Fold this sequence. Notes:
- The protein is of the alpha+beta class.
- It has helices at 3-15, 24-41, 58-61, 63-69, 133-151, 156-160; strands spanning 44-49, 72-73, 76-77, 107-113, 119-127.
- A hairpin with a 5-residue loop joins strand 4 (107-113) and strand 5 (119-127).
Amino acid sequence: MDKSFREAWRFFLANGAVVTPPGRVVCAAEYARAEQTAEALGWELQTEPDYDPEMGDHESWCKRARRRAAGYNNGRPFGWRRDRLPGDMREGVYVGSHRVEDCDHEYVTLVLADDTGRILASVGSVEYGHLDRDYARYWRAELAEQVIRELHIPTTAQLAAGAGSEVAA
Length: 169
């Protein structure tokens, strides 16, 4: 196991490996191999605006939505009436509800493209505010692993071992 693979394996073990079978250790190794293969083949992760994201239950994961549901808006009770105590959560004290349109979340679609610009895989509805370098690294490996598995593309490790002579188109 070379040093770059070991570093990638440790990164994915800490940041993206899933617990379900085959397990975190194997999953991290698959992501590390996929990342190395993507680099060798010149696959890049690109972002495109996602104007119609699928956000699921927005009110369950949005911090602002949860705070509004609890009756707070910018640290003060939302819809507070003078004749009630600020912390009173009884029905009728707080008015209004959180709407997706009220949020300023920006979403992108992540696209894995080869060196010619051909799209290999993509994932949408990724909140741009969460897209840092590590998260982008994880998604690049995740999408690359899917492409490698589905198109039966040999990894760089398999090519080095002589398991495949050419890459599937």
